[in-house]
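Q: Hi! Curious about what Structural maintenance of chromosomes protein 2 looks like structurally. Here's the sequence.
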Amino acid sequence: MHIKSLVIDGFKSYGKRVELKDFDPKFNAITGLNGTGKSNILDAICFTLGISAMNTIRASTMQDVIYKSGQAGVQTATVTITFDNKDKSRSAPHYSHNDEIVISREVGMGSKNTYRINGITVTAKKIMDFFNSLQMNVNNPHFIIMQGRITKVLNMKPVEILSMIEEAAGTNMYESKKKSLEMAVGKKDNKLREMRNVADEEILPAIDTINKEKHMLEELNIVQNQLKKQKEKLDYWNYIRYGTAFRKENSKLKALEDKFGKKNEDYNDLQKKVNEITNQIEELEKIKEIECGQKVSKFSKELEEKEKEKKSIQIKVDVYENNIKVEVQKIIDLQKHITNSKKDLEAKQKEIENFNKVNAGFEENNKKDTFDLEEIDKKIRSLNSGNIYADEDNGSVQENINKFNLELQNQESENQQYAIKIDALKKKLNQHLTGMKEAQKTYDIQLAQLTAKEKEYEKIKNEYLKTNEELSQHNNLRPKRDGLLRDIRELSSKIESFESNNSSLFFNYNDPQPNFDRQKVHGLVCRLFKPIDFKYELALTTIAGGKLYFVVVEDDSVGKDILEANKFSNRVNFIPLNKIKSNSLPPNVLKIAQQIGGADQVFSAISLIKYDQKYSKAIQWIFGQALVCTTKEVAVKVCFDSRVNRQCFTLEGDHYNPAGNITGGTITQRLVLQGIANQDEIISQLKTKKSEFAHIDNKLVAMANLSDKVQQLQEKHIKVQVELDKIRSDVHLGQPHQQVTEVNSIKQQIFELEKKYEEGKANEKQLQAKIINLETKMKNAKNILKQQLSDAEKTRKSILAKIKNNKAEYDEKKNNFNKLELEIKDLTNQMQDQENQLKVLDTQKKKFESELTTLMLTLNEATIIFNEVFKIYESQKEKALKTSDEIKLCINKKKELSTELKNCKITILEMDMKLSKDKKMVNELEQIFIELGNKLSDDQKHIAEKMDFSHFNSDECKQVLDGLQARYDQISKVVDPSKLNNFQKHILEYKRLEKKLVAIEKDKNKIIEILEELEVQKRKHLQNASDNVNLEFGKIFSSVLPGAEACLKQVNKDDITAGLEIRVAFNGLWKESLDELSGGQRSLVALSLVLAMLLFNPVPLYILDEVDAALDLSHTQNIGKMLKKHFKQSQFIIVSLKDGMFSNANVLFRTKFVDGSSAVTRTTCNQS
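A: Let's find out. The predicted structure is below.
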């Protein structure tokens, strides 16, 4: 990694933005007149690298780095460095994927620092960590060499030079560890001394003193233990006694409370019955007034209306049925056309397939004909050469005669062998046939038994596997059932929780009269619709307002009856569907509103909800006139436009009224509709889960006895398998099986050999005939040759004619094939059009069927309503007559219940008095029991519960306690009881101290071993660093001052830690002191040593500021050459005023002063 470019803006003397481009990866020099800003470039680099010591960049405060301290209008100083990071082997961690890394630092007049890496703002620590990972600590910068540092090296003592080597080698880590370990050893020694003093001065004297009173103390200890045991036993007895009494009385109290609670429930039930019968009497009185005339007249009119509705719907049903018949006939006709087209398509496709087969045969025949033509040409050439061919064989006649004679000799030899083997096998067969009849009979019986047993085994095996599979399913069903049960409980709990927390979302009421039709009460408005998207919920709930909780009923009489029959604690409002009028928004108003605000910004409220059409009147009444806008701005435009003049609501709940009223959004009702939707979903899930649970439960009941059945089948399976294995063994290993198998094997061998013998004899005759025929041809060779040549020419002409005919036939079929392809394409397109028409007709048919279904449902509902109204009409006449009798019965029943209620109240008062008295007694017992329990630990309570107190005498226990207490008091006057505990305590403490002493001594020795190891490692590492630095020191000094030598010499050759001194030689003569050298030579020595230490642990970048100030021109030039030679892996940026230094640089930057601000020019040199 190296610097690629540097941008300085407002930093020190650089009042204007200056960019130093294209730094050389190796050697860069900066020169210029004094005061033109050379060193400021180096300060800018150090500033960007995160320096915190201001004196290093020659400033006292951060404001000093800003151009003219901010007095010239420049308020910030910014420096940006671009690093080339293409060499990934030397990249910083986590940045290897970047080819360039840009780091900048900016400081303003308020001293606010800003660091950035690749444009991202980071902390100063992040910058420090970044450069520390490259071994470039800018606050302790070994890679920056100032002129003063060279002078300091010259005046260093041997120990100080050694410390420089240690710093370069990193052995300071060993020293810090060594110091911490030495401190640990000191602490261990102090601890040992303290512990030994405690043991000698406190613990051992106390042990000696107590040992003298040991006998008395031991007796005291025995008495003390006995006293403790007796007290514990008495406490245990009291704990058990009061616990038993408390539980017994508490159990009686609970039983009494249960009776009291039950009696209260009886009282409340009686009170409820009295109230119910009172309400019933009042209802019957009202019914009596109404039934005689009003309802009968009302239901007569309603009956006429329902009959008209029913006839109107029936007419629509007839129309739709006729439409469906027409569409069905169209579909049938179109399907016939499609079927015919498919048949035509299949026929043409079959013709295509036939052509492909013919084409494949043509190609095969063409290849064969071509091959035959080549073969016949070859034969003609051979015949013209005088060779005669056999009729069926290749080659000349003489060759075939020789070949057939050899085959005839081989065949005769094989036939003789076959005859010998057949005779031997027949003799062997006759021997085995003796007793074969009986063996065959036995073998057949055994085979029959084996077959029967195998069938039985397969049957049991299949039944066992099937039952076992069912058992596995049964075992898998139980966890699933338990999981479903948990889900059902959880879902039920959620439903109950929702209902208890949202009681306002449920309308509960008592039926106004017996057999009341609850379907006429449709429920709260908020439960009758859902938003198409819940982002509109707040707007919709704001539109509805309090109407969300209005109750929708079938007609006004239903609402009136419910109000009269129920005493609601809150106000209840009803929306009767027979009285309410729908209030929809005119289409032209909606169109204008959407033109003003945008079709995707303005919506009618009614378009944003889903609802059942039977509630359309109520929904239209609430939402019909409202508009919903996505933003406040759109709502303002639409609402106050004179062409619209409608209320507008935003998604945030804002309400805009054309009258000029504006109401802010609220979220108090935001989750009402969402909560209802979630509750409906939970109810649906619960229904599904219950259905699954019932199904699985039924399965489990049906499969309850599977385990026993599997066990029985397994035992039976094993038994039959054993029997089967025995029969198989008897069959396959028995004598009959072996005898039958052997005979069958011999017969098979004889059959195969006889077959081969017959085939061999036939082959003999064929070969003999071929030989005679060929010998005859040899006698008449001239005539045969002429005849074969003539036949070959005829065959050649025949093959050529065949090839020509086949080609003509193929071309004709190929033309037909092309026509067929076009016809198939047209037919396919035609079928596609017909299929599309069919889909359209089917869609139309389904639409008619859907509408017909809806009408049929409406017709059924209308019929049901008509029948129900008719029944009600008839029943109202009867009710009017029965009501008076019912009222009398209710009054008598109320008197009986009132008497029973009074008696129940007296019993409750008596039980309440007894309950108060028993509660007081139980509380007292509980308090004593708790106090006794607090004195005991959990283990003691457990022991007390396990003890048998059936023979325990508390008086005897108290007497024993008194005697032990007297003896304890007597002995404790002579000796101090606490000394016995102290004795044991001191003994244990002394033993613990001894263990600690051993452990601490062990730790101390371990630390001393580590110290010794650290010292060895340090010396080893330091010696290695010294050797490497010494080697490079000599090389560098020799290169900058040819003919001279330099080295680091140990003050004590056996101990490197005594220090190192610099030795210099000229022409082999070593100088006693550096004082003998000139000032320039001494500066070269110090500079060579510093550079040698840098080379030991190199970093990507080195900065040298006028280190050649004390050197003459030749030495300066040598330093430049040395840097190029020895530091090939690092980038150097050097400030120098001497041509000998920067003439070796690859890139030279010259500074100058222009209009009160520094400027820089770049020169390329030494590119070779």
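A: A fun detail: Residues 865 and 884 are 29 Å apart (CA to CA).
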